[in-house]
Amino acid sequence: MSDAAQFDDTILSLALARVSEQAALACRPLIGRGDEKAADQAAVNAMREELGKLDIAGVVVIGEGERDEAPMLYIGEEVGTGNGPGVDIALDPLEGTTITAKAMPNALTVISMAPRGTMLHAPDVYMDKLAVGPGYPKDVVSLDMSPRERVEALAKAKGCAPGDITVCVLERPRHQDAIAELREVGASVYLIGDGDVAGVMHCTDPETTGIDMYMGSGGAPEGVLAAGALKCLGGQIWGRLLFRNDDEKGRAAKAGITDLDRVYSRDEMVTADVIFAATGVTTGSLVAGLKPRGDSIETETLLLRSRTGERRRMTCRHPL
Ligand SMILES: O=P(O)(O)OC[C@H]1O[C@](O)(COP(=O)(O)O)[C@@H](O)[C@@H]1O
């Protein structure tokens, strides 16, 4: 049987939620402790241990970095018992290391899984990203448009004025010009300090979040994770890898990427059905953070399946 046929998303999704929960729980003693590395390491250790218990023949395609720079959950690492379907795994054990260290909102653990060979092996470089929610015509906006053109095109498709469009952007000096141009056309700019996986996901539910579009550069691994989430939630995302030097281009070559200027759509980043889990570490706009409840800790996990379109929001009490 092929890996896709063996990919039982009903069973695997619950297992994935547990992996995500354990990574979040491991971060708890490190929230607000000012030590980003320790928080990340705790999440990595827990995620790896839990993945080791699953009956999968997993390969980390989006992980903590290249084999020589990440001792655990490096790109290409095999995880799971080896007895089960071949799967690709994309993970970010702690999306928001800095915000966890500072006890600020919106830190998450994120993991997704799909049949083997169906996720883009994005190197650890930046990616220029653009995303919109469901319900728009295909390619309603594009990475080749200016920020102004994107807002105008989206407003036209939505049937509103550019001034009614809200765009989520990571607050970074490199985005200053784009932010100025967005404001010039009348758009509202929703700035986030970190965490663009959640930023992208926010545009899938504008009625709740108020966000219509995501744009800007961030980690390429986070781009593939966000593409998996959008495959479950609906919406479109486009990503183009950005290279700052030859070393980064070499990383792409190692990952088998030859066309360095290619724009990847959502379904080119994740080509098959996918499952996705995110658990809150600190409370944010996507999921609640870890909550002490007497002698247990409560987690909230968003669990998504693209095949069925199911969106499950699960709370779980973990005895201390
Ligand atoms: O901080 P930079 O270099 O702009 O990178 C942006 C990336 O960092 C993050 O904000 C946080 O990433 P980590 O906490 O996982 O390191 C991502 O969501 C985003 O893609």
Descriptive report:
- Mn(2+) 2 binds at residues 92, 95, 222.
- Belongs to the FBPase class 2 family.
- Mn(2+) 1 binds at residues 40, 64.
- This protein has 320 residues and is α+β, with helices and mostly antiparallel strands.
- It folds into 2 domains: 9-119 and 274-319, Fructose-1,6-Bisphosphatase, Chain A, domain 1 (2-Layer Sandwich); 126-269, D-Maltodextrin-Binding Protein, domain 2 (3-Layer(aba) Sandwich), CATH 3.40.190.
- The protein contains 11 helices and 14 strands.
- It has helices spanning 3-6, 9-27, 36-52, 97-101, 147-158, 176-184, 196-202, 206-209, 220-233, 246-254, 266-269, and strands at residues 57-62, 78-79, 86-95, 108-115, 126-132, 166-170, 188-192, 213-219, 236-242, 263-265, 275-280, 291-293, 296-305, 311-319.
- Strands 1, 2, 3, 4, 11, 12, 13 and 14 form an 8-stranded mixed beta sheet that branches.
- Helix 6 links the parallel strand 6 and strand 7.
- It is globular and about 50 Å long.
- The chain starts with a helix and ends with a strand.
- 50% of the residues are buried.
- The mean pLDDT is 95.
- 1,6-di-O-phosphono-beta-D-fructofuranose (FBP) is lined by residues 92, 95-97, 170, 172, 194-197, 218-219, 222.
